[in-house]
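FAQ: What does a ligand-bound record look like?

Like this one, built around adenosine-5'-diphosphate:
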Amino acid sequence: MRENRFFKTLSYKIPILRSLAAYIFVLMLIIGIVPSVIMRIGILQSYEERAVTLRISDVTTQYKIIANHLLNYNYLQDTSSDVINAELEQMSNLYDGRVLIINSNFRIVKDTYAISEGRIMISEEVIKCFKGESTSRYDQKSGYIEMTIPITGQRPADGEEATEVRGVILASASTDSIVTTMDILSRKALIMEIVMTIIIVGIVFFFSHILIRPFNRITQAIREVKDGYTDEPISVPDYIETEHIVEAFNQLLGRMKVINDSRQDFVANVSHELKTPMTSVKVLADSLNQQPDAPVELYREFMQDIAEEIERENKIINDLLSLVKLDKTEAVMEISEVDINTLLESTLKRLRPIARKRDVEVVLESIRPVTAQVDEVKMSQIFMNLVENAIKYNKEHGWVKVLLDADHQFFTVEISDSGIGIGQEDYDHIFERFYRVDKSHSREIGGTGLGLAITRNAVLLHRGSIKVSSVEGEGTCFTVKIPLSYVKAGGNG
Ligand code: ADP
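The answer part, i.e. the structure of the complex:
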């Protein structure tokens, strides 16, 4: 764990440790070079083993022949034979080594170096050899092979088959020629390896760059979108991986486009909606100005209209401000335990004068007392908007019924009316900003087209839902469902 963190910190300090191209480069380099190194070492080693084995068998064969000569000349008892001495000298020179002849008393009868003659020689190898077993030992460090060869003769007493070891030849041979060949081979192999490494590094460098090129292309394409040269979906289909990145990016781009389009629409709508009352005010004021002797009654009437238009403008601005506040995802929710029955009663009380004006009867029916954790101001805004709409879009002598109910998790408020109704095709649209089914009718009765957008946002901030069902010409029913306990987004913080 600590090592992992250490590597992370280190990789942030040394950016190349986080480079995919560097990883590909190193990986391909290892795959390219390691086998050739292993092969070089393996081949040299097996050459050495084979050359040493051949040398041992070669030397052993030679000395076996000499062993026979030794017996023939009775050399173990008398070392004066010039022929044998010359033969031993020649062998010792040929193999650049020393030869010792040891008799059955372990005494050295001949030493080609003439140092140890007459001495006793008891060693593991010599004893083994007296038991009839040739031995050989390769000393790589000093570059010598050491061998023992038994001098075997027939035992006169036991007939033809029986043999006995009468002496031992202890010989050494230099492996200089093998070492020299090895050196040459190893140097050549090393040169080849260096050349190969240079070629591999070149190829690997080239490919590691080619392999990550699609990622650079993605970066370039995203940069172009960022810098505003294009807003078209990008396409880098080289790898499945790059395709996934591009797909995710294009989805993000699509979402941003939708957000941008809706923002532009919103700005256009806002400007238009704010301009309408201003235009009316201007028309009214101009027409008064053009009639210098207009009667006071006309002035009064027009001034009344101007005041209404200003009031409308005010309403739109207030609604816009509420909407903007609710639009912020982290809109501040002031949650408290609220008595929903009381809240509904006070909302209806405030709306009764408008209802009375339109001769609409408003009834509240509560199945049970409900208290819930809600933002009181926002909840009141929800009820206000829905009940006000139910009154506004009603008929003469119509009714509005508000029904409050709850279970152990949610409370529901149903606001039904006997009004003009909404066509099914408009169900989704009525919650959009500035959408009005019948623009002129809505404006006539003081609508801004923002009420339901505000309502829906406020409901969503309470993690609730809002549904509409309606029959055109008969009436509409809005159902709001809100959790009794407030749950913060993400469940933490
Ligand atoms: P407005 O300010 O125009 O009332 P809203 O966002 O509150 O804007 O409502 C959007 C539109 O939905 C209204 O213009 C109206 O056409 C329709 N609408 C809303 N409530 C009702 C209802 N109870 N009955 C019929 N139509 C309704």
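Follow-up question: can I read anything off the structure? Yes, for example: The chain has a mean pLDDT of 89.
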